[in-house]
Amino acid sequence: MVSIKDQIVLITGASSGIGAACAKIFAEAGAKLILVARRQERLEELAQMLKGTAVHLLPLDVRDRVSVESAFSSLPADWSNVDILINNAGLSRGLNKLHEGRIQDWEEMLDTNIKGLLYCTRFLVPGMVNRGRGHVVNLGSIAGHQTYPGGNVYCASKAAVKAISEGLKQDLLGTPVRVTSVDPGLVETEFSNVRFHGDTDRAKKVYQGLTPLTPEDIADVIFFCVTRPAHVNISEILLVPTDQATATLVNRI
């Protein structure tokens, strides 16, 4: 395992779930953390939990290109050389048939899952190339591999993440900058609660009768990927609970 002590790790969607779990595991390894999310109070709570870790908070919405560019270009000198970018910010809205879908939901998913990831990547990767080091980790999904009923636009957004990851890796060939796509199946986070617009009872049913992955499971895999020797690139990992075989086939007790 390669040490990442004192490396600068920027995590989007850091205020909860997989992002917060990543912050904790990277903090334990001695990394310096730039935590990005819309909810400033949640970021501040997380920073309090990570006392003893060097943390820089960036409360912003990755969908806002101007804000992303301004925030990244205004980073203090000690924080400007990002070594690891974890594009974790993302969400799903609704589970409707395409012809019955809400356009507002589509726009939120596409703006966050695709455009937000692109903005962060575009503004940070040139510095990695110039410095001759860096690693981009994109959070994809099993939904980027297999479409399921009602998942139309969300699945399309994660298929785009898969294509963007593959394209970025090809574009960076010949540089030391690595690209990894981590694609989980069922993970119990706020994901389903957000998808169903706060319907907690409906969200809980997604995970009933099975043992889903946890945010810590995903963070552990991401940490493994970025701590491999420089000549090793984990291009893509698809991980699912033991109780899940495909996007739609699960075992429930």
Automatic annotation (TrEMBL):
Alphabetical list of InterPro entries matching this protein: NAD(P)-bd_dom_sf, SDR_fam
A Pfam family annotated for this UniProt entry: adh_short
Keyword Transmembrane helix among record annotations: no
Transmembrane segments: none
SUPFAM superfamilies assigned: NAD(P)-binding Rossmann-fold domains
Key word Transcription present: no
Assigned keywords, A-Z: Oxidoreductase
Highest taxon in the source lineage: Bacteria
Family, per entry: Belongs to the short-chain dehydrogenases/reductases (SDR) family.
Protein name: SDR family oxidoreductase
Species name: Funiculus sociatus GB2-A5
Lineage: Bacteria, Bacillati, Cyanobacteriota, Cyanophyceae, Coleofasciculales
